[in-house]
Design a protein that fits this description.
By secondary structure, the protein is of the alpha+beta class. It has a single domain, classed as Protein Transport Mog1p, Chain A, CATH 3.40.1000. The protein has four helices and nine strands; from the N terminus they run βααββββαββββα. The strands form two sheets. A seven-stranded antiparallel β-sheet has the order 1-2-5-9-8-7-6, with helices on both faces. β3 and β4 form a beta hairpin. α1 packs across α2. The longest helix has 20 residues. The chain starts with 16 loop residues before the first strand and ends with a helix.
Length: about 200
């Protein structure tokens, strides 16, 4: 597993995941190009495909960064020759407390349904929402989304001014809806590794 460290968050990703630095546009694009090349190879006839994929991923990464994301990561896992695509986007959520009132406010704002669960790790409270959305462009079973909110004892070093624990949102997505249980287990393990 790798240990990318965006800001005050630490988490462990499986080795077959590629973390992307969102802070520097040149580093971000080079990282995305390396990811795409690793997945598609270096054949000259695929260069236009690689370029298009890098452009698409770069737009998504720019949009995420513009929305406050501090990290994106992409799965490069395979089962034999079959890729197992998934992504993770991590956001800092200023002002959100994961006490009972904060969770009630979050659920009311995001949408109350049966897809929520509430738990904890050794480091703090975790709230999870799981859903499958249909994507007409995908033309398949849709997209499995798992949103996690986690807060802990705060970053190492001085605590925030109001002594409030940091809260982060981790958003996982995968088209592997048929592997939902296995993918959620993997996502749960990544979230369990989070230190804030």
């Amino acid at each position: 597993m790798t240990d990318p460290v965006p800001h005050d968050l630490r988490l462990r990703l499986p080795d077959a995941w590629h973390a992307v630095d969102l802070t520097d546009p040149e580093v971000r694009r080079a990282s995305l190009a390396a990811l795409v090349t690793a997945q598609t190879g270096t054949a000259e006839d695929l260069e236009p495909v690689r370029d298009a994929l890098v452009d698409q991923l770069d737009v998504a990464a720019m949009q995420a960064a513009g929305s406050g994301a501090v990290l994106m990561a992409f799965s490069t896992m395979r089962a034999g020759d079959t890729p197992i695509p998934a992504s993770l986007t991590v956001y800092r959520v200023p002002g959100l407390r994961l006490d009972d009132d904060g969770v009630a406010t979050l659920r009311a704002a995001v949408g109350e349904d049966e897809s929520w669960s509430d738990g904890s790790t050794d480091r703090g409270r975790v709230v999870r929402r799981v859903r499958v959305i249909q994507d007409e462009r995908a033309g398949s079973a849709g997209q499995l989304l798992a949103d996690y909110w986690i807060s802990g004892a705060g970053p190492s070093g001085p605590p925030p001014a109001d002594d409030q624990p940091e809260t982060f949102s981790l958003v996982f997505a995968t088209p592997m809806v048929q592997l939902a249980d296995a993918m959620l287990s993997l996502f749960d393990r990544v979230v369990a590794s989070v230190e804030v």
